[in-house]
Design goal:
- This protein is of the alpha+beta class and about 425 residues long.
- The protein folds into two domains: about 120 residues, no CATH class; about 180 residues, 2-Layer Sandwich (Nucleotidyltransferase, domain 5), CATH 3.30.420.
- It has twelve helices and 14 strands.
- The protein has a six-stranded mixed sheet. Strands 5-6-7-8 form a four-stranded antiparallel sheet, with no helix packed on it. A two-stranded antiparallel sheet has the order 1-2.
- Helix 1 packs antiparallel against helix 2, helix 2 packs across helix 3 and helix 5 packs antiparallel against helix 6.
- The two termini are about 45 Å apart.
Length: about 425
């Protein structure tokens, strides 16, 4: 509805013309479309640009709401929050007032706090509306994943219907439905990626049936994937009384591929420390160009550098990071990063240059492979194993004092 609530300037409506008639015998009539039109390549930009202009014009009157439109919006969705109910009430009122200045009316409200929604008309809420049934909690799709407002957590939901015949086409179609934008289940998705690679290496055509071995492996994967529905990932990752906030990134590689993962570590006034998974990404090792494990690990280091850059850009608008750490169990990669690029071979030099020229310097440290969480995503895990895999969700050693971290004076590097 946001498109239809965005009016186009009268001088530009001549570019939005349609022909219409009530019946085949009636004369054709030319109409100008007065609002932003669905289907035009420019329409999404116009809508988003309109909201940003509205935020800029009304910033002095509604500073909190303007910040939400600029930083916490995705097309026509606003995903934001506050540290207390009082702050949330103020933010809600500001958002309603700011949007009203542009002729917009917010709909599909949802919150983990029912008190916040009491004065919102029922027809303006995002269904389902019931919050009081813990046995059957409502889940609402939010940018491709499921949000449970009762538990204030994210979940996944996959439903693969039985296929009459398994072919490369049907398998790829099903894998494409596994949507994991933040990489929280990267170890499971990695196994799916590796299976795709084996399908290509098998030489099957698009509609040829899978052999018995591949078919059995796929059916076991689909059956195990049902366990992902049991996952519940807390939405809140930042305590209100945080005194220290740092990013911790890890990367690793195997013969099958490489991966990187980033965590947020926070300490509070009470001394409590928490570690939360933020984002991860994995890639399958190329087939045509066989790379050594150290070379794949170096590609993992580049991937981690890009992830840290992305996360830092997103977080720096709302929090101040005290430090950024990058961890690896590869001493070869650490040695390459320490070496001036002009002394390295072309492959290593190009990637080391990308790492050391990052806009956000990171402290590089060695970590034993047994406590490197990115190992999970570079080798793959079954869904049932991932559910309670503490090393993946929150490495326990990171919650300890930095004095107990596996940091030696000889392996610290800052770039």
């Amino acid at each position: 509805m946001m498109f239809r609530m965005t009016w186009v300037h009268p001088n530009d409506r001549r570019y939005q013309l349609i022909l219409w008639r009530e019946s085949p015998s009636a004369l054709l009539v030319t109409y100008e479309l007065a609002t932003n039109t669905y289907g035009l390549r420019s329409s999404p930009y116009i809508s988003i640009r309109t909201l940003l202009e509205l935020a800029e014009r009304e910033r002095s009157s509604y500073p909190r709401a303007a910040a939400v439109l600029e930083n916490d919006s995705y097309v026509d969705d606003c995903l934001t929050g506050a540290s207390s109910l009082g702050e949330a009430q103020i933010l809600k009122t500001e958002l309603q007032s700011l949007m009203a200045c542009g002729g917009y009316e917010l709909r599909k409200w949802i919150s983990n706090e029912p008190e916040l929604l009491k004065d919102i008309p029922l027809e303006h809420l995002q269904g389902p509306y019931e919050f009081h049934d813990p046995d059957n909690p409502p889940t609402i799709p939010v940018l491709g994943i499921q949000y449970n407002p009762t538990a204030d957590s994210f979940t996944y939901s996959f439903s693969f219907k039985p296929q009459k015949s398994l072919t490369k086409r049907t398998v790829l179609s099903l894998i494409a439905r596994i949507y994991d934008p933040c990489g929280w289940i990267s170890p499971v998705v990695f196994k799916a990626k590796a299976f795709i690679q084996r399908l290509w290496m098998s030489g099957l055509n698009w509609d040829g049936p899978l052999n018995q071995s591949l078919s059995d492996e796929w059916l076991l994967f689909v059956q195990d994937l049902e366990n992902i529905k049991q996952l519940s990932i807390p939405r809140r990752i930042l305590p209100a009384d945080a005194t220290s906030i740092s990013l911790h990134g890890f990367f690793d590689a195997s013969e099958a591929g490489y991966a990187a993962v980033v965590y947020l570590r926070t300490e509070s006034y009470s001394g409590h420390c928490s570690v939360h998974l933020l984002i991860s990404k994995s890639k399958i090792a190329p087939i045509r160009t066989r790379l050594t494990i150290p070379m794949l690990e170096l590609k993992g280091a580049v991937l981690l550098t890009k992830l840290i850059h992305h996360v830092t850009i997103c977080l720096q608008k709302v929090i101040v990071l005290d430090a950024i750490y990058s961890w690896t169990d590869s001493k070869i990669v650490l040695a390459w990063i320490k070496t001036p690029p002009h002394l390295l071979q072309t492959f290593e030099a190009n990637r080391v240059s990308q790492i050391t020229s990052s806009d956000f310097p990171s402290e590089w440290h060695h970590v034993p492979g047994s406590i490197n969480p990115s190992d999970c995503a570079s080798r793959g895990l079954s869904a049932s194993s991932l559910l309670n895999h503490d090393l993946w969700w929150s490495p326990s050693w990171l919650t300890e004092s930095p004095n107990h971290w596996p940091i030696g004076a000889d392996n610290k590097q800052s770039y």
